[in-house]
Amino acid sequence: MKTLYQNTIKLIPFILLTVSLQSCIKQPGSWRNDQIPDGKRNDFHKLNEQLLRDLHTGNADDISNMESQEMLDDKSNLRLIELVGNAAKTTDYEIYDEYYIVNKHRSTDTISNLSAGINSYKMTYNGITHEMYFALFLPKDKKFPNQEMITAMYAKYNYGWKLASLNVNTYKINGKTAPELYQSGKAKYDKQLFADARLTLELSLQCNAPNDYWQYQYHAEAGKLFQSAAEATAKQYRFPVVIDGVAGKPRVFRLGNQKNNHGWFPMIYYVTKVNIADTNAVKSENLQIRKVINKLFPGINEDKDYVFYSACSKQPSSSARIEHFDMEDKLR
Questions:
Q1: What's the predicted TM-score (pTM) here?
Q2: DSSP annotation of 243
Q3: Would you put residue 203 in left (φ > 0), alpha (ψ -120 to 50) or beta?
């Protein structure tokens, strides 16, 4: 009698699971969440549980057993799996949306969730096999201000159900999705708070594609409005901008967004005449800047938890390193 090797024994449940998913072929169409037949949906969930468990433990060998041959052959997927694994290790994930699809043709097709209000979306994909399944995961803990979406796409090959792609991307920033940030940015733009609107719309674009197939209804409008806000900001301010009311006339040369554990917040880069090595003097000047910064850039420190500052010895003109001192203003 031959002895089964340990890895073969570990594969038996996975092989039986992929075999059980071979049956119940449907006519072309797509089924979302509880529309998916219970037996098939339960089997998909077992695949998902195994995937999340292996990602959380970093078990690369077991993940490779779940991958299609095409996915295994593309070595760039090793880095993608590492990134997805890093996200899976930070918190527990659960299903947000799932789709079982029977494709009629090997062509581009679209599935949609139009029941999520402003967050309604569609996903456009290639029908690489007759039957496919998408699983979209989000953190169970909804209190995280910044959230990553994990997307697993499975396909049924002649050797069973296998992962065809796996990716992770930003879903929420500061507790808001891309359309919600777009709405906030549009409200600021309509009030002519152009600099603050540009920063908010920049964050919207940062989480506008939670996976490689995703598109929100406001996708095109967000990009156009960001460009309009950027042009209006440049026209209004003509950087570098002198901070009036502060001795030494520090000059703001750039506005950006900076991340910390609580979210993304405005970062104000300015040139100071104060010696950067004298950090007490830099901090003292910065306290004066904080008192007038909202007058210069209306809205910049409103509805924010933090504003970051970077005092620089001179304005950067190349990749050369310049002396700077970074500070954080906790607003609430």
A1: 0.88
A2: -
A3: alpha
